[in-house]
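Backbone-to-sequence.
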């Protein structure tokens, strides 16, 4: 698959849930889109993982370091001067500024209401809508990526159906599309 030309900024709340984060990062690694984030976005992810008791501080720091290692091109810098001219929710203007600086077409966030209005040419999408759009680019490739994700989960082992069940809690439309695709493929 040729890497997708479009650039996507992923908000901290999409990087917070384990299974969703894994899927979003794998999709970037597989070339479905070009991943971007800022240090502020990763700070927020790390801080929230620790403050909710989801991860110990050292584990959250290792996760962040691993993400930065595998996606060195993802970090956007030099956007702070753009924040003042934005009109969306003040606490999320840094995300929009990073997206503008990166030339992104999409911000994926679980908090759509805080991302309006946006500059022309930039769209906010829920993780479900975003992943459905990626699935539509290459359904077979996307399902293969999800199967690989399930196979990689060994402590404890997770079946493909169990992975879909976990994802279904946060991205139900994607899971419905994957299941429908599987049924259609079985009838060919």
């Amino acid at each position: 698959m040729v890497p997708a030309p479009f650039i996507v900024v992923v908000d901290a709340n999409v990087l917070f849930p384990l299974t969703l984060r894994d899927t979003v990062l794998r999709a970037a690694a597989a070339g479905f889109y070009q991943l971007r984030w800022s240090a502020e976005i990763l700070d927020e992810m790390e801080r929230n993982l620790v403050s909710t008791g989801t991860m110990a501080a050292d584990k959250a720091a290792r996760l962040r370091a691993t993400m930065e290692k595998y996606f060195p091109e993802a970090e956007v810098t030099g956007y702070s001067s753009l924040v003042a001219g934005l009109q969306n929710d003040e606490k999320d203007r840094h995300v929009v500024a990073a997206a503008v600086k990166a030339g992104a077409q999409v911000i994926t966030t679980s908090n759509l209401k805080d991302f309006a209005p946006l500059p022309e040419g930039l769209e906010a999408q829920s993780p479900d809508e975003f992943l459905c759009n990626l699935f539509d680019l290459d359904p077979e490739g996307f399902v293969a990526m999800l199967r690989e994700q399930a196979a990689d989960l060994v402590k404890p082992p997770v079946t493909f159906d169990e992975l879909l069940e976990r994802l279904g809690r946060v991205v139900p439309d994607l899971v419905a599309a994957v299941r429908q695709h599987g049924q259609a493929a079985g009838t060919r």
